[in-house]
Amino acid sequence: MEAHDHSLAADLARMMQMASNRRTSLRWLMASAAALPILGCGGSSGTDATASTGSTSTGTSTGSTGTTGTTGTTGSSGTTTGACTVIPEETGGPYPADGTNSTSAGVANVLTQSGVVRQDIRSSFAGMSGTAAGVPLTIKLKIVNANASCGAAGGMAVYLWHCDRSGNYSLYSSGVTNQNYLRGVQEADAGGEVAFTTIFPGCYDGRMPHVHFEVYPTLAKSSNAINRIKTSQFTFPMATLNEVYATSGYSASVSNLARISYASDNVFGDGYSLQLASMSGNATDGYVATLTLAVIG
Q1: Cα 3 from chain centroid?
Q2: Distances, alpha carbon 292 to alpha carbons 18, 60, 70, 103, 140, in Å
Q3: Stretch 67-95: mean pLDDT, rounded?
Q4: I need a surface site. Which of 1, 101, 197, 289 has the fewest CB within 10 A?
């Protein structure tokens, strides 16, 4: 058959070149596949494919201390499984230090280093020294297993990392390549809960403030990134961001935050209610961020 300008192949090629985020491209592709049942299935791994094609939540998500995300919309890859909605899969970004990429010094991997399993992640470890300054922040995450009636996922592990108050990532950013602070691993207790003592991250240009994390099925498997079952990010309410960035040491975050929004952010732009932490505390005494994370275990 002679090809023409409006063939499906041409349309798909153009759609893949659109300057959209990765979820928009995936939704177009899945819609096209649905229209052509003779084509084979392929592409994403199990959790990614499930998250992209599942139904989305129509309500708010329940955090560790109550209902969270009332100001956002559920991300397009949130999949409702039983009574809970799986948190969307997100990029790990360019600074994971989980062995999947390199710095100028070589492969960056803190997961295999002695001392990475810790609650307080403010200081560097494994032979490096230095402590990140900033407004105190306690992060409390509750992991639930969507494949087990949304019950507590005791025994799973979380690797968590974020930038410092200047927006720099240890091991990667200029000036802190000799630091590995603000990175750590915790094993969930019987209730599926982990806690990290850290500082409030700054806002660097082009992104809403956020925290990265990876979930692993067990602590023993957290030393190799190939074993991760979820990679995602979470963010904070705007009111809290404004309070924190009015304090000393966060001046650059004020102007950076003014140029970005949840809607324009390349991760949270398609919904963030499942990724919005509940906050308590204040800028003087510190904050506590709580969030429930549903994963497919």
Answers
A1: 43
A2: 34, 12, 14, 32, 9
A3: 69
A4: 1
User: Which pLDDT does position 284 carry in this prediction?
Assistant: 96
Structure tokens at 136: 């105190």
Helix orientation angle between 22-35 and 8-16, rounded to the nearest 10 degrees? 170
Q: At which residue do the structure tokens 């948190």 appear?
A: 87
Distance CA 181, CA 192 (A): 24
Q: How many CB atoms lie within 10 A of CB 17?
A: 9
Q: In angstroms, rounded to a whole number, what is the distance separating the alpha carbons of residues 103 and 9?
A: 39
Q: Which among 19, 21, 95 is positioned nearest to 269, based on CA atoms?
A: 21
Q: How does residue 10 score in pLDDT terms, banded at 50, 70 and 90?
A: very low
Length of the chain: 297
Residue type, 118: R
C-beta separation of 202 from 59 below 8 A: no
* Alpha-helical runs (H) found in the chain: 8-16, 22-35, 46-53, 238-245, 251-258
Cα–Cα–Cα angle for 94, 99, 101, rounded to 5 degrees = 40
Specify the amino acid at residue 251: S
Share of the chain above pLDDT 70, in %: 72
